[in-house]
Amino acid sequence: MLETVRGPRQLIVGEGVAQNIPRVVAENGSRVLVVTDRTLLGQPGVAGIVAAVREQVGVVEVFSDATPDVPLADVDRAVAAAAAVDADVILAVGGGTVIDLAKIVGVIRCHGGTPRDFYGESRVPGPTIPLVAVPTTSGTGSELTPVSVLTDPDRELKVGVSSVHIVPDFAIVDPELTYSCPATVTAHSGIDAFCHAVESYTARPRPHGPRDPVEQVFLGRNQVTDHYALLAAERIARSLRRAVRDGGDTDARADMSYGSVLAGLAFSHAGNAAPHALQYPIGAATHTPHGLGVGLLLPYALRAARDAVGDRLATLAGVCGLDVADASPAEAVEVFLDWLDGLLADIGIPPTLADIGVARADLPRFAELAAGVTRLIQNHPGPTDTTSLTAILEAAWAGDRT
Ligand SMILES: NC(=O)c1ccc[n+]([C@@H]2O[C@H](COP(=O)([O-])OP(=O)(O)OC[C@H]3O[C@@H](n4cnc5c(N)ncnc54)[C@H](O)[C@@H]3O)[C@@H](O)[C@H]2O)c1
Ligand SMILES: [Fe+2]
């Protein structure tokens, strides 16, 4: 037996819980850097949070220039903003971009250096200043995960900093903050969360020695990650379409918030797999939103691994509420994959890599780059040699779902 569970010191999920933000921030420091973006700062919900924090905390600096996918230039500017007020606590209010930026700012503020010093797994040498993370999308789970994903202009693929030391200290997840998400952001972030659940649930289990839970961040699936993943898949499957269609559907918004939290808990330990690894070079090349890319790739990666995880896909069919009571396991797999195709189409995810401007000639190079993202690709339950990964990309490029 070998198990590990990591997470924020406190994780709170529910309508209205954003009211706790000023108190939690004030209890953790007296000079706060707020990280957010301009769109969010222009909204009453986020502006209200900043105003309430100003009433309780002596020094408040707001960095609102976060731009999608955390380009390194943003990190430099945000680190400078933190230094200007000698910040001793960070409050991140935003999507995965904002929270990932806040994580790396905390690392550099405590340990110096540049983001490049921390790329990879378990390279952050110790704790950082307290981070209070408040998501405004239902997707990445970044408010509780040990990962920060950055865009380095000198690299052909996005880069990750993974460490138990960057799990935010407090995660305050209020579905009301997601009500303003436009349908595209709801769709992209929501399908990202569904990928986290499914990639964790189908991740390859691996044998481990006693040092692995500290030396490695992602460990493959286990019973605990399965539990979180299935709870997440159930909620997201019943509510993602509804949240995209009607952003005012508060029940669907609540399901998506809790579902993305549960999916984050699953992949925080299991890790993601081929769709995420393949999206690293594709996202860097095409600048398509993260969720759109991983959602597009998911059905192709699953079809390539169906022999290894057919029983799991059949379980997912039942958990996602599909009518498989009288189906054989093989039929249930088909029902699940067909349903996934329909879900992706309904929420506006393009069906092929050609649709998002990927050149066919680039596929082998993307496969090679993805094969190098060991911490993710080793979770793929199918073959992971570059020929097999290229075959997934070829199918995704051409829309071949056989
Ligand atoms: N750290 C992790 O564990 C993890 C996991 C998966 C993905 N990621 C990363 O997270 C990023 C994607 O994050 P995301 O999907 O949350 O999107 P995002 O943070 O990039 O935001 C997308 C857009 O939505 C807007 N937005 C966010 N919340 C809004 C709201 N409530 N109302 C209106 N507009 C809103 C933002 O202003 C932005 O323009 C990528 O860089 C991805 O690589 C990180
Ligand atoms: Fe993701």
By DSSP (H or I, 4+ residues per run), the number of helices equals: 16
End-to-end C-alpha gap = 39 Å
Give the % helix. 40-55%
| Major β-sheet annotation | 6 strands, parallel
Class by SSE composition: alpha/beta
Quick one: how many beta strands? 9
Strands ordered across the widest β-sheet: 1-9-6-4-2-3
The CATH architecture designation of the largest domain is Up-down Bundle
Question: CATH superfamily of the largest domain, called what?
Answer: Dehydroquinate synthase-like - alpha domain
Strand content: 5-15%
Output mean pLDDT: 96
The CATH topology of the largest domain is Dehydroquinate synthase-like, alpha domain
The tally of domains stands at 2
**H/E topology pattern:** EHEHHEHEHEEEEEHHHHHHHHHHH
C-alpha Rg, in Å?
20 Å
Please provide a written account of the structure.
A six-stranded parallel beta sheet has the order 1-9-6-4-2-3, sandwiched between helices. It has a three-stranded mixed beta sheet with strand order 5-8-7. It folds into two domains: 10-178, Rossmann fold (3-Layer(aba) Sandwich), CATH 3.40.50.1970; 183-398, Dehydroquinate synthase-like - alpha domain (Dehydroquinate synthase-like, alpha domain, Up-down Bundle). The chain is an alpha/beta fold and 402 residues long. A hairpin with an 8-residue loop joins β7 (147-150) and β8 (159-162). It has helices at residues 21-28, 38-41, 44-56, 72-84, 96-111, 183-201, 212-215, 223-245, 250-270, 274-286, 290-304, 306-319, 329-346, 363-371, 374-377, 386-398; strands at residues 10-13, 31-35, 59-63, 89-94, 120-121, 131-135, 147-150, 159-162, 170-173. The structure holds nicotinamide-adenine-dinucleotide and fe (ii) ion (FE2). The site of nicotinamide-adenine-dinucleotide (NAD) has 32 residues, from α2, α5, β7, α6 and α11. Residues 37, 39-40, 68-70, 94-98, 100, 136-137, 139-142, 145, 147-149, 177-178, 180-181, 185, 188-189, 192, 290-291 line the site of nicotinamide-adenine-dinucleotide.
